[in-house]
Amino acid sequence: MNSKNDSTIRVIMLLPSLPPMAAGGAEMQALSLGKKLMEKGVAVQFVTPGKGEIKGRTDIEGMPAMRLYSFASRLFEFLSELKKKNTKKIIKIEYDDAHDKVDEIDRPVGWPTVLYYNIFYLHCLLFLWPKRNAFDIIHAHTMEWPAIVSAKLGKALKKKVIIKDSTMNGFKSLHRYPSGAKLQRFIIDHSCFVAMTTVIEKNLLAEGIPEKKIIRIPNGIEITDPPKENTNSNTGLNVLFVGNLYQQPAKGIDILIKAWTGVNKEFPHAKLFVVGEGATQEYIQFTRRLGIENSIQFEGKQSDLSKYYASASLFVLPSRREGMSNALMEAMLWGLPCIATNISGNNDLIEHGKNGLLVPVADIASVTTAICHLLSHPYKAHEMGLEARTTIKNRMDIDIIADKYIALYRQIIKQSSKAYHNR
Q1: What are the tens digits of pLDDT across the range 202-214?
Q2: CATH code for residues 238-395
Q3: Given pLDDT bands bounded at 50, 70 and 90, which one contains residue 303?
Q4: Dist. CA 6–CA 51, nearest whole Å
Q5: Dist CA 115 CA 78 (whole Å)
Q6: Distance set, CA 258 to CA 101, 262, 272, 274, 288 (Å)
Q7: Which of 63, 68, 225, 242 has a CA between 20 and 30 Å from the CA of residue 182?
Q8: In 10 A of CB 56, how many CB atoms?
Q9: What kind of architecture, by CATH, is found in domain 3-69+103-220+398-421?
Q10: For residue 20, cis peptide bond before it (omega within 30 degrees of 0)
């Protein structure tokens, strides 16, 4: 049935990966949004590249996900494995913020990535062409190469495209691709854009994207009540960080570890819990060199974070760059006082001194001072945590965010219908 005569909204959500493959905040946010949209009657299907045995149709929490895969994918994986065997992996722990490029990715995109996303584009085209009358919108949740694939599909299939820029400099980073400037113009011509934060919106405007093509919609979170036994009185000395270590230097975990040397001197019984996937052994060795290994616990990847939020006294996010952190929103929802860097996404959520503390980027002394201040003033920290929870409940409820997307979808479908009847 054609949606021009049907109130059901049908959306293809295009993502670079989905669990059980590695997935970051943008992918997890897309799953959360998709689940809520389906509860509200929107027909959602996820489309992503397959890998190895993870291919074909699967369901994620009742949501259909198609993992596209072919012989070309297998050949690409084989070539990639050969390249990895001949390339020595270097794990960098420390960064020099005065000289290293840490606030954005600027390395040129090579032929493997270009080949990878073009294979995926052809897979999508073959998969979606027979279904082109069974969906209305293509919604990409990251900029980078999914934006390129989505825009190309939109043109080929004559579909409206929405691209969510999930990082501070997502659109700008497209200049790293071969013919990057041309790709940027192509994407502008065939897409509209969702900006999560004030800074992202300003950056999109600065890149020449018309204001009428940009809409502000933040990330959202499922609003739940913490367990009754968790009072978040913040009388303990457990400090929590949640983030993928392989996303360095973005997450700033090196800054936090260095700052912890000062915290450890002031509060020798305090414990820092680091939760996230990555090179934990290398980080453990780093803490040994600093003499603080006994006060930091690396927990690795965890599927259930509730016990960490429940036992934490405060949460720290020392990122150098962010979109809008799911972990920060979760910590605030749990009523934790939060310390975060004064960057896009973080400062959209935290009002300094009211519902948390903002510190300068890569400022080790400021991170140390902020942590010690909240550990020294548990009552004040508790009040900040309560304000943090109120902020998330009032502004970031995924139910409200889903309604905003539905309104956007309907607006775009209506515009498409007018163009169709005016031909």
Answers
A1: 999 999 999 999 9
A2: 3.40.50.2000
A3: confident
A4: 35
A5: 13
A6: 19, 8, 12, 14, 12
A7: 68
A8: 11
A9: 3-Layer(aba) Sandwich (3.40)
A10: yes
- The pTM for the full model equals 0.89
Domains 3-69+103-220+398-421 and 238-395 share a fold: yes
Domain boundaries, the chain: 3-69+103-220+398-421, 238-395
Q: What is the pLDDT of residue 313?
A: 95
CB burial string 17-47: b at 16+ within 10 A, e below: bbeeeebbbbbbbbbbbbbbbbeeebbbbbb
Listed residue (244, 225, 230, 328) closest to 283, CA to CA = 244
